[in-house]
């Protein structure tokens, strides 16, 4: 079973971390585990069973990745956008808690379906809208481009010039 293999790997990774990397006993230190915001309770339960029963960890705190991302920038409330290899997850966090019903997962990833192009198109639309609302006109020959459109010299130039 695939899930059993994953949990066997978790146990072996924890064993390696405690014995080889940290050179300490798991029973002498509490553990902080960071998990995906959409993790289901049976997976959480199995992770805790491994920690307590196989490694004799005295205490475990399960934190959600979106909450720790907010804490990393000094916030307790925010919207976390996680663009990863497999897909993109948008997670709302309010006062240090994940709003589970607001989690949105989509298949656009950093490597698979060109998430950067999707985001650039959205930013282009927003830029055009704000520019037209403000009544600002720019000379397209001046070479002005929004900062987010600056790319490396070998990058293919965009077709649309505003």
Summarize the biggest pleated sheet.
Answer: 4 strands, antiparallel
> Helix fraction?
25-40%
The Rg value, from CA coordinates, equals 22 Å
What is the first-to-last residue Cα distance?
55 Å
What does the overall shape look like?
elongated
Indicate the low-confidence ranges by residue numbers.
Answer: 140-144
- Give me the secondary-structure category: alpha+beta
Strands, total number: 6
- Kindly estimate the percentage of residues that lie in beta strands according to DSSP: 15-25%
Annotation field: number of helices: 4
Mean pLDDT: 80
Q: Could you give the order of the helices and strands?
A: HEHEHEEEEH
Describe the structure.
The chain has 162 residues and is α+β, with helices and mostly antiparallel strands. 7% of the residues are buried. The protein has helices spanning 2-21, 41-54, 65-72, 115-134, and strands spanning 31-35, 60-64, 78-83, 88-94, 97-98, 104-106.
How would the blueprint of this fold be written?
Layout: H1 2-21, E1 31-35, H2 41-54, E2 60-64, H3 65-72, E3 78-83, E4 88-94, E5 97-98, E6 104-106, H4 115-134
Parallel strand pairs: 1-2
Antiparallel strand pairs: 3-4, 4-5, 4-6
Summarize the structure.
This protein is of the alpha+beta class and 162 residues long.
Task: Please name the defining characteristics of this protein.
single chain; elongated; alpha+beta; 162 residues
């Amino acid at each position: 079973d695939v899930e059993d293999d994953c949990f066997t790997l978790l146990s072996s990774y924890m064993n390696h971390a405690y014995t080889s990397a940290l050179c300490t006993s798991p029973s002498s230190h509490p553990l902080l585990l960071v998990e995906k915001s959409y993790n289901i309770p049976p997976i959480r339960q199995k992770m805790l069973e491994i920690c307590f029963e196989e490694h004799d960890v005295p205490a475990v705190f399960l934190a959600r990745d979106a909450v720790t991302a907010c804490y990393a920038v000094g916030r307790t409330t925010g919207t976390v956008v996680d663009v990863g290899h497999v897909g993109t997850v948008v997670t709302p966090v309010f006062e240090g808690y994940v709003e589970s019903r607001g989690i949105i997962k989509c298949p656009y990833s950093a490597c698979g379906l060109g998430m950067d192009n999707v985001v650039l198109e959205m930013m282009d639309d927003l830029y055009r809208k704000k520019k037209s609302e403000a009544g600002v006109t720019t000379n397209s020959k001046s070479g002005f481009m929004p900062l987010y459109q600056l790319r490396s010299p070998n990058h293919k130039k965009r077709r649309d010039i505003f």
